[in-house]
Write a structure and sequence with these properties.
The protein has 97 residues and is α+β, with helices and mostly antiparallel strands. The chain has helices at 42-51, 55-72, 84-91, and strands spanning 4-7, 10-15, 18-22, 76-79. The chain has a 4-stranded mixed β-sheet, with helices on both faces.
Length: 97
């Protein structure tokens, strides 16, 4: 049986080889995680702002997940299905770049 924990609008699943964290709608572009400073394309940045019910809460949650991805990225595989490259890398078990 796998352990599951909710982190904001993300889901973390403990697997035998570490944690898998699905970001849900927390981020849409790979540049928003695994580095201290957020990088996002202008179109996706606008879309996230436009669709957010509470943009301040969304940004705060994203920052918390970004910090976690920088601190524990070796233990946790972060991915978001909105980013085709992240999803494809997960499908073939390749490292995210």
């Amino acid at each position: 049986m796998m352990n599951q924990s909710a982190v904001g609008n993300a889901i973390a699943i403990q697997q035998p080889d570490g944690w898998l964290l699905h970001g849900g709608d927390a981020w849409f572009y790979r540049g928003e995680m695994r580095q201290p400073t957020r990088h996002c394309t202008p179109g996706l940045r606008f879309y996230q702002w436009m669709m957010a019910m509470d943009n301040a809460a969304r940004r705060h949650n994203q920052q918390r997940l970004r910090e976690l991805s920088c601190q524990r990225g070796g233990e946790i595989t972060f991915f978001c299905s909105h980013d085709a490259r992240e999803l494809d890398a997960l499908r073939v078990n390749a490292p995210l770049r």
